[in-house]
Design goal:
Layout: E1 18-23, E2 26-31, H1 32-36, E3 50-52, E4 62-64, E5 70-73, E6 76-79, E7 100-105, E8 108-113, H2 114-119, E9 133-135, E10 142-144, H3 145-149, E11 153-154, E12 163-167, H4 169-177, E13 182-183, E14 188-193, E15 195-197, E16 201-205, E17 211-218, E18 228-232, E19 236-240, E20 242-245, E21 255-259, E22 265-269, E23 272-274, E24 285-287, E25 296-300, E26 303-305, E27 312-315, E28 318-323, E29 326-328, E30 333-338, E31 348-354, E32 357-359, E33 364-368, E34 390-396, E35 399-401, E36 406-410, E37 413-418, E38 421-423, E39 433-437, E40 443-445, E41 448-450, E42 455-458, E43 466-468, E44 471-473, E45 477-480, E46 488-490, E47 493-495, E48 500-504, E49 521-526, E50 529-532, E51 537-541, E52 546-551, E53 554-557, E54 567-569, E55 574-577, E56 580-581, E57 587-589, E58 592-594, E59 597-602, E60 608-611, E61 620-623, H5 624-628, E62 633-643, E63 648-653, E64 657-666, E65 669-680, E66 687-692, E67 695-703, E68 712-717, E69 721-723, E70 732-733, E71 740-742, E72 746-752, E73 758-763, E74 769-771, E75 777-779, ...
Parallel strand pairs: 11-13, 12-14, 13-16, 14-17, 15-18, 16-19, 17-20, 18-21, 19-22, 20-23, 21-24, 22-25, 23-26, 24-27, 25-28, 26-29, 27-30, 28-31, 29-32, 30-33, 31-34, 32-35, 33-36, 34-37, 35-38, 36-39, 37-40, 38-41, 39-42, 40-43, 41-44, 42-45, 43-46, 44-47, 45-48, 46-49, 47-50, 48-51, 49-52, 50-53, ...
Antiparallel strand pairs: 1-2, 3-4, 5-6, 7-8, 9-10, 58-59, 62-67, 63-66, 64-65, 68-72, 69-71, 72-73, 74-75, 76-77, 78-79, 79-80
Length: 855
Amino acid sequence: MTTIGQLPLAASVSDSAELAIFQNGQTLSATRAQVLAGVQTALTVPQNSLLGGVGPGTAAPVPITIGANLALSGSTLSATAAPFEIGSLTTGNVPGASDVVPLGQAGENQGVSYANFMAGLGGLTGVPGGTLTATANGGTVARTISALAGNAVSIEDFGAVGDGVTDDSAALLAAIGTGQPVRLGAKTYAIAGECDISGAACSLLGVPGLSILKRNAQSKTGTANTATWINVVCTSFYADGVIFDANASITVGTLAVAIQASCTKTLITRCVFQNAMGGGNGNGLTYLASDPNTTNHHVEDCEFAFNANNGLAIFATDGISVTNCRAHDNSVNGIYADSRDPTFTQKARALHIIGNSCWNNAQVGILVGNFVANNVFTQPFLYGNGNPDILGAIISGNNCYENGIYGVYISGRNILVSANLCTNNSTKVSFGAGILCDTGYCKITGNMITGATAFGIDCGGAAYTEVENNYIDGAHIGLNIGGGQYCTARSNFIQDPVGAGITVQNVESNGNGDNFGLACVGLSIVCNWINYSGSVTGILIRDGAQNVRVEDNIIVANPGANLTTALSAYTDSIILRRNVLNYTTRWALSPATVNGVYTLTVPDIADAVSISQASAPIASIVTTQAAQVTGSVTFIKVTNGGSAYTTATVTISGSGSGASASAWIYGGKIIGIQMSAFGSGYGTGTTVTISGDGTGATATAQVGLPTWPGKELTIDCLAAVTFAAAGASPGQTNWTGAPITVPAGASIDWIGTGANGWRAARFSQSDYVSPNGDGSLTLKTQSGDISIHPAGSGGLRLISDTESTGVLELIGRGSPLNAISAPAGSTFRNLNGGVGATFWVKQSGTGSANWVAVA
């Protein structure tokens, strides 16, 4: 086969010359023109000129003109202008938002405003900006962004997720470990317990109402003696705007948030402590005992709710203030402070609870201290003021309402309770109170207690405590203040009590038989206002309370009320004076025959009465209450407490029946006896026997009511009234020993003498000296002689307005001549007698001469 190389050469080639080609599986011929169609032919370009394409698409090249500042030399095109260098540009000003920054965007040159250029930086990741500087608002020094960011750290900076599920406790502790304030976002951070917060200081800054630390598990072992969710052991602790949610579904018996003794300074504000379970440890926030450490704690504007025990619990901590907080719906108490140290070493001191609102807690809104003398909380309780757990506190300006038992409960020493509003407490029991004060050396003043509580204020068992200027409205018993020592109820306003205005029991108890260890003595009830209706008792005193002073009280009985119940005092030791019932200062009375005895019955509260008629000598003066309890055993006085008693039975023997009583035992002694039934028909010879496992106890029964020793009663006699002496019951003694007739328009003052009845202290002696209407005077006797008894050797001198010296009527023995001096006209009677020597007359002069015997 012949090859191309073996063919002869053509002399020339034209566009019509043909070539062999292979196309579509065939060998074909094509002209040179066909083959070269579309192939650019050779270009011839003059020197120092350019060709190029300037039109759209593909086209033949065209010449290009060389512009200014450009030169073509050989194969090089160059610019004659100087190079563009930013450093050589003119210095400008601080860029403005509308200034333009050149950028290459999408393959083109673009001008972007400076505002848009800077806004784009936020969309870049990984751009370090920590070395940038800024000046904080109000500051004067610029600092780097990293330094400013270090003012507080975010928990997210340490890996927290904040989804409420992932455990963020490690991140929290790492953030706290920086020593900077830790910022919490508006998230729920799951924190597993135990989480121990240690170091010098911790500061948690949340968004109030939105930042939540919630326990997701109690799965870690910590350093607390009692297992705790968040255990604060750092020296100082600050939290603001954080919700501490202990998680109601976790019911193990741990503490929730606990401040240990090592933490001596806290400031907790705008936080919430909720859902702590676990019974006795289920407090929202707990301050554990730190006394005697000097501490500085303040809890302000926080909320404590839905906890299984107390909302806030404070144990033996000094110098803590709880202000403007809210505690509600806790299963025991809202705010609780106590010690409970069985060695009585640790106390709670300088406690400050002001301006809080506590409602719907199952037991007490605010509870401070306890009344258990030995801090052993098993029944039977041993009550008393001997070992107070609270030393110095103020509870003021709080609003406690609709709590199950008490609005405010205090027990301790030197506690001021003032200006609190307690409304509708004791919603769950029949024995609660607006304020309960089992205290010593305390003051309860200026509080407002309203609603149908069992007691407005209950101070049973208190000592050296003043209850004054409180307003109590609608309680069953307005104020109970018995069973204590040297207390005062002063200037209280008690409105519409249901059972009694003020009550006093000789010995108080908790209602379960555990008494308070004191018998009432030295009680003052003064200057109070009591308004009542029906048969409510204004002031009630029972079981022989001793040394009770009832003075200057105003009692107002509404229309239709029983006036005889204004005062009911079953005691033989009371100072009762200047009290007013319905603004009546003198009661108009009429004596009447009672069981054959002409009797004057006076209101117990009265200091003065008037009588407009009397048809017979009055042989009995009794009070209204005394008349009602004649023949009843009103109280029993212990004369010897004995020893070694744990049980005792009281037996009453006498002519009557139905009286019964029980003994109060404290420290092995009988300290008092409480009447449970007064009986009837008893009289002289009624006896009391105390039997039991001890020895030596004795007591006496009081049948009826005695005339109170020192009781003053003035009787204005608008008609002539005679008071019997012999045979009067109670006794009506006077210095004459005879009946007394008080003329119309005169008065008689009687003084009570106890079992001996009444003694006439001041009265008009008209039975002996009777002024007459014409200005004359009559001296007389009821029987026997009138005796005139000058002292020594003195005589009876008769004088007148015109004769100031007058004459003497003298007696003696022997002759007066030259022995007795007297003015002329005087007489002398010689008691030796004898004819011509018995009756002598002074004839002249003033000396001892000129006496003449005339008979």
